[in-house]
Amino acid sequence: MGSLRDLDAEQQVALLFLMLFGLLVLVSASAIVLSLRERAEPTLAQLERHDRFVRDLRAAWVGAALFWLAWISGPVGSTLLFGVLSFLALREFITLTHTRRADHRSLILAFFVILPAQYLLAGGRWFDLFSVFVPVYAFVALPVASALAGDPKRFLERNAKIQWGVMVCVYGLSHAPALLLLDVGPTPGRGAFLVFFLVSVVAVGFIAQEVMAARLRARPIARQISRSFSYRAWALGVAAGMLAGVLLYWITPFEPEQALALGAIAAATGSLGELVMRALKRDAGVRTWGQAASVTGAVGLLDRVAPLAFAAPVFFHAVRWYFKAPV
Amino acid sequence: MTLAGLTGLLLAFIARLITGAQGHWRGCPPKAEQRIYFANHQSHLDWVLIWAALPRDLRATTRPIAARDYWTKSRFKHWLTRAVFHAVYVDRQRTQDQDPLEPLVEALRHGDSLVIFPEGTRSTTGEPQPFKSGLYHLAEQFPQVVLVPAWIDNVQRVMPKGEVVPVPILCSVTFGAPIALAPGEDKRAFLDRAREAVLALRPAPA
Q1: What is the DSSP letter of A139?
Q2: For chain A, give me the number of helices (H) and strands (E)?
Q3: ipTM associated with this complex
Q4: Are the CB atoms for B106 and B142 separated by under 8 Å?
Q5: Which H or E run includes A131?
């Protein structure tokens, strides 16, 4: 593993993408082979599981392709790419919350001022302002715009929802391109590896947790929200995330034990973020954001980005704080 | 490609970016036959949304109705409605000797499809108003043209009356099963039935 560290960045990237796409090709190919096999009449649950698997696999392909695009297009391209992703996620979030006519101006502020400004700050590496722009400045601006519209009905509720959407879809997600641009450790310019590290650790942790939950059948802690979430499965997911973190330490500026700790942080926050998103979905009365029958045409983007949106800010702050990264 | 064609593609792209402009063909597939789409009317964006939800090759032959006095006032508005959307112009002021449906009849005779909003004006309550009789007269004169009801959802949230900047919110257009004028059917009964067909496509509130 140490010898992998000595490769130069170009070779490491090539190796990473080879591994990533190789893995996807393997999974897809075996899925196709399995689907060709003759089988007894499948049950409804099996069909549903299969549908979900196909959807997740497709999302993984799209995600991998996007990540590759972000890599080859450099800092400007990846900031733009995540900006668009953020826009689409916020659009989906706002669609599913009830806003009133008086929220129009605040929504315009959120979509066309706060969102671009946040990504500009990320792209320009003004990380000090970047970290406080939404929680401090947008926090003040949004309710002011709403109050000026003069509709007191359910004021707090409406504003809280918009604030929350901005926090998750804009603030949270914008930390992914910020990580790309962060210089830490002895070798600068390796931020993309941090994003890769974060995404893979979160994904491994989440998948391990789901698999374990199905195996263990432990008592769910929050049955109303998730039938599969239990502390034991969660802990095993975090452990898997730590393992993935150590296995990937050679692409990061971390030492193995640092990679272990950061892997734990990323995996833990990622799956907890997913749980929170699930609670939100229950509240909105949808099973997946991208329900096939959804009238709004939501594509299920929020589902995919939620773990990242929660894990990225914590991870970003932890890395920056620990390494005292220069701004 | 001409400038008008490019503008059309750009507008469709923007509509999709802001609203998703998802078309759900629930009652009939998108097909190159002569049709009249009739829908609820809540916003200026309604037409663009239906248009963007149509497959690209149907857009060229599907035309909106535009008020002549408003949409020919400036050169840009005139160009937009004439060259990009191929709008059918109607006069809002009714003159003595002219049938207001005349331009629509001509377009249908020509073989084009139309999109009409039979309420006549934008409704502010979300509940469609009673339909005007134009739909009935067209159905009577052109029995071979397929009448497709459509429900446009969520668009009033994108751009409420009086605002100019649209907010990105996902919208959908649901196309239902075609209806036809029954032989000897009463005008009011047919119009109510048409309105019911549009209302039936409204998704249940979450």
Answers
A1: H
A2: 14, 0
A3: 0.79
A4: no
A5: helix A127-132
The helix (run of H) or strand (run of E) holding residue B36 is strand B35-39
C-alpha distance from residue A87 to each of A175, B17, B154 (Å): 14, 9, 18
How is residue B181 written in tokens? 């004028």
Averaged pLDDT score across all residues of chain A: 82
> Are A195 and A179 in contact, with CB atoms under 8 Å apart?
yes
Range of the domain at B194: 3-199
Within a domain: B102: yes
Q: Do A295 and B169 touch (CB under 8 A)?
A: no
* Domain count for chain B: 1
Cβ(B193)–Cβ(B37) below 8 Å: no
Q: Give the amino acid at A107.
A: L
- What's the token pair of residue A264? 């734990």
**Chain A contact present for B167, CB below 8 A:** yes
pLDDT in tens, B111-146: 999 999 998 777 777 678 888 888 999 999 999 999
Beta-carbon separation of B167 and A295 below 8 A:
no
Please name the member of A91, A92, A104 whose beta carbon is closest to the beta carbon of B163: A104
Whether the CB-CB separation of A252 and A197 falls below 8 Å is answered with yes
CA dist A136 and B28 (Å) reads 51
Parallel, antiparallel or unpaired: strands B113-116 and B88-90: unpaired
Structure confidence at residue A296 (pLDDT): 46
* C-alpha to C-alpha distance for A197 and A267, rounded to whole angstroms: 11
CA-CA-CA-CA torsion sign (A291, A292, A295, A296): positive
Structure tokens at A183: 């210089």
What pLDDT does A39 receive? 63
* Paired tokens of A4: 């992998």
* Strand B62-67, strand B88-90: pairing: parallel
Q: CB–CB of B160 and A92 under 8 A?
A: no
Residue with tokens 């397929």: B146
pLDDT exceeding 90 applies to what percent of chain B? 32
Which CATH number do you get for residue B41?
A: 3.40.1130.10
Residue B206 within a domain = no
Residue B204 lies in a domain: no
3-state secondary structure of B183: coil
How many A-B residue pairs are in contact by the CB < 8 A criterion? 47
- pTM equals 0.82
Q: What DSSP assignment string belongs to B103-125?
A: HHHHHHHTT-EEEE-TTSS--SS
Chain B residues with CB inside 8 Å of A107's CB? 167
**Residue A137 DSSP one-character state:** I
- On whether residue B176 sits in a domain, the answer given is yes
Nearest Cα residue to B151 out of B36, B46, B15: B46
